UniProtKB/TrEMBL annotation:
Organism: Microbispora triticiradicis
Protein's name in the database: Protocatechuate 3,4-dioxygenase subunit alpha
GO molecular function: iron ion binding; oxidoreductase activity, acting on single donors with incorporation of molecular oxygen, incorporation of two atoms of oxygen
Gene3D superfamilies: Aromatic compound dioxygenase
Cross-referenced PANTHER family: DIOXYGENASE, PUTATIVE (AFU_ORTHOLOGUE AFUA_2G02910)-RELATED, PROTOCATECHUATE 3,4-DIOXYGENASE ALPHA CHAIN
Length: 181
């Protein structure tokens, strides 16, 4: 007999978010971009207790970070904030809990692919949902397969120099495209 799935949260306050988790690269990193946005439910209301993970394949300058004491490997380089998994170099991820207004932010290196993978954990979900953040409308097999309205849900909007807005809509009108692997 198998055990049925349970929903994901809201229990993200312990050990999952960690100080500086939104910073995949240090301040002043060449070409760093900041992505901000909100997680919204089907009625367009903010989701105040979601958790997002942004992944990058940037080969240099990205900190593979994790919370202290969680078995993520060696501590980061001297002077680094938080706990690093092997310091800078290699791909990494950042983790950010949403604020009461559903907002989040990440600072990362520019993507080496046309997109940045994003996972969203939220109450009511049995498993995290996966999507992509495209910083530009570029030729891509996934984008090319979508009608314009659905395609738009994967495109971040420029918000000044090296800053982008990307809202995640979990369902309803303008629901973000989620991927099934």
């Amino acid at each position: 007999m198998t055990t049925p799935s349970q929903t994901v949260g809201p229990f993200f306050g312990f050990a999952l978010p960690y100080e500086g988790g939104w910073e995949l690269v240090p301040e002043g990193h060449p070409g760093a971009v900041t992505i901000t946005g909100r997680v919204l439910d089907g009625a367009g209301e903010p989701v105040p207790d979601a958790l997002l993970e942004l992944w990058t394949g940037e080969p240099e300058g990205v900190r593979q970070r994790g919370p202290a004491g969680m078995g993520f490997g060696n501590a980061g380089s001297a002077g680094s904030a938080g706990f690093g998994r092997g310091g800078f170099g290699g791909g990494g991820f950042g983790r950010c809990a949403t604020e009461p207004d559903g907002s989040y932010r990440f600072r990362t290196a520019p993507p080496v692919r046309p997109y940045l993978p994003l996972l969203v954990f939220a109450r009511g979900l049995l498993k995290p949902v996966r999507t992509r953040v495209y910083l530009a409308d570029v030729p891509d097999p996934l984008l090319g397969s979508l009608d314009p309205d659905r395609r738009a849900t994967l495109l971040a909007r420029a918000d000044g120099k090296d800053a982008y807005l990307f809202d995640v809509r979990l369902q309803g009108e303008r629901e973000t495209v989620f991927l099934d692997f």
